[in-house]
Each structure stands twice: as C-alpha cells, then as structure tokens.
Model the fold of this input.
Amino acid sequence: MTKLLRAGGVLRRVPAVWAGWVLARLCLALLIKLNHSPRGDLFYYHVAIFGSNPQDMTEYPHAGTWPTFLAAWLGGSEIMAFMFVFALVCLACDAAYLAALLHRHDKRPTAFAAAWFWVLFGLAAGHVFLMRLDIFPGLAVGLAALVIHRWPALSSSLIALACAMKLWPGVLAAGLVGRFSSARAWLRVLTFGVSLVAFAGVTLLAGGWERLTSPLDYQNVRGLQIESIAATPFMWDAYRHPGNYDIGIAPSKSFEIAGAGTDGAVQATTWAMGIIIAFALLWALYRFIWGGWSPQTTIAWAAVIVLGLIVTNKVFSPQYIIWFGPLVAVALRTTTPGSARRKLVAALSVMTVVCAGLGTFIYPFGYDYLWNFVGEQLAPVAALVARNGLVVVMFVLALAWWALELRAQVLEGRQIEELG
Done:
C-alpha cells in the first residue's frame, strides 16, 4: 500500500481519499442490496426498543445499545426508517474516523496509507460494517490509540467507553499501567476507572444491577460458534462427514457446532483466553514495577491482545474483524516509515483486508452452507479455513511487531514517563 501511494501522487490528496471513500461506500450499499439477509440483527434491535420483551438486547452491555436508541430517536418507530438511520449513524462515525486519520496529514504523510486502508477495509468488511453494533467499540479503541501520543488521559476515557459498550476492550486497560512512581501513569489508570464507573452508573440508573451484569450471564450459555478458530477442524470434518455433528442456532442466538470433541474445544478456549488475560495482567505488573511505558509500544501490545482474544475465543462472529481494523489504521499512521516494524504493519494491513473480505464471502453469501446445507459446497468452508488460518498468522506477526517496538524503544529510549 505504501509503494502504491508513492507511485500515485494523486492518492496522497485529501479530495482523492474522500472520493474513494464515497465510491467504496456506494459499492458497499450495492453489496447490501445484493444480499440483505443480515438485516435480522437490525430487526432485533428495533423489536428490543419498540417491543414489550424486557430481556431483548440484554446480552449487550447497556452502553453498547446506545447507538440503537439514537437511531430510534432520529428515525422513529417505522422499521425501514430505523434501519436506514442506523446505517447512517454508522456511516457518520466511519467518516468521522477517516477525518481523524487524515488530521494533520501535512505533517504526517503516513496518514494517507492509514486513510486508504480504512476506505478499503470498510468495503471489505461488508454488511456487518453498517449493520452491527461492533463498529462503535472498535472505533472507540481506534480513537484511543490515535490520541494516546498527545492525550493519554483522553485515551483512557475512550478505552473505558469501549469497555462499557463491549466487554473485550476492558483487557486493554492493562496497557494503561505504568511505573508506580509516575504521576502520568496514575492519571491514565484513574481516568479509566472514573470514566468506567460513570458509564456503569448510567447503566445502574437506567436498568439496575441486573442490567449491569446481564452481559456476563450471557457469556456462560455460549457454546462453540461455527466460525471460531477452535471450531475450524470440526467444521472441515463436518463438510466431509455431515452426519457427525449437530449444527444450528443455539439459545445464545449464535450458530454453534456440537459433536465429538467440541466440549473439549470449548474448555481449551477457556484456558487459552485465560492465558491471554493473564499475559495482559503480567504485562501491567511488569510496567508497574519497572516502568518504561510508551504509546507506540502500547498500540502494538493492544494489537496482540485484540488478535489474541479473537484467536482464543469460542466465538468469532463475522463482525469481530471490526475490532482490529481501526487499530491497524492507527498503526499505519504512527509506525516509522522504512522500518522493519512498518513492513510488519503493512503486511498486517493487507491481511486484515483479506480477512474482512473472506468474512464477507462467508457471511452472508456462503453462510447457509456452513450450517444448513452442510457438505454441499466447498468454497464457504475453504474460505472459513483460510480466514481463520490467516488470523492465526496475523497474531504471530503482531507478536513480532510488538517485540520490534520493544527493541526500538530500548534502542531509541522512547518513553514518556519518569522512571522514578
């Protein structure tokens, strides 16, 4: 992508980026028109707001549902208007993030690589980019990474917002920890804590204690989702021997696979995710004792954590790739040009777009052949295997990038807090 930008000067102009964004989003709209089956979640959001069942949408953190209430307030109770406005809200946030990536592009030419990645990523991500709630916590994490160099306290508040909207960003709070003697480190951590308590307070006032804890209760009933990394060998075997597995929609509202070995796989994911969380906590402890916190190393560490959570999760819903895309855009903007780190980030950016595209092919275009017409078409299963294998490779590359950032920090003395 960087070489392409060097070759084409026109691509390094702001109007060209915005023209590309408009064209890409028009193509995305055509893609949605071609197959609009993912509207089911939007129907669900609508029913949850205007219906009579108080349990609807309680599997989401309360703050995570705020965009649906905004869409309802702007669009009203008519279902088509609600869906249209929800997509517009997503597009508005999408455009705002692109504008943030382009900010001060005259002083940071790498902003164009980040912007073009975001343009392509949004198209490749497909329907879920405009029809799911995951874009909002993903963008909050992306903005947190974008401002962490200049306004680390604001970054902490954005991580807290993302955590209030979706549970997984809470692990990233470990990256805010610095040396115990650093006032800046305490400011980051306390800002996160106060912000999270404030968001939790809103939930308590709106829905009480049960509404605050309902997303945690929901996690306990989930089985092995068919797109998860751990489910990959079983899905391949199910394609070859369809009768060996039970595949269908579960009480958790996701499509799950059950059969010989799947219970063990679920247990393995629990242990593996525990390792990722333990790694995050140990890293926080290391920084707390020895210090050396730096924003760029933290961005790379966050990429490792996000991919680690995806790889070890018993669920890999189509929209989960949106967790990672905003971080990659920031990495393209902030990583030193010409360095080995930059090459790794460039490779990650290409792989992320490919993964998003494969995910769109899987869902919605090939999804029926994963759970309903099992064994009838190879392409969706092959795409699933390729996508999941690529995500594992991305996790390894993210670890390598993080290691190089740590090495560069030592060589260049990059840190912003006092060692005490």
Observations:
- The longest strand covers residues 245-249.
- The chain has a mean pLDDT of 94.
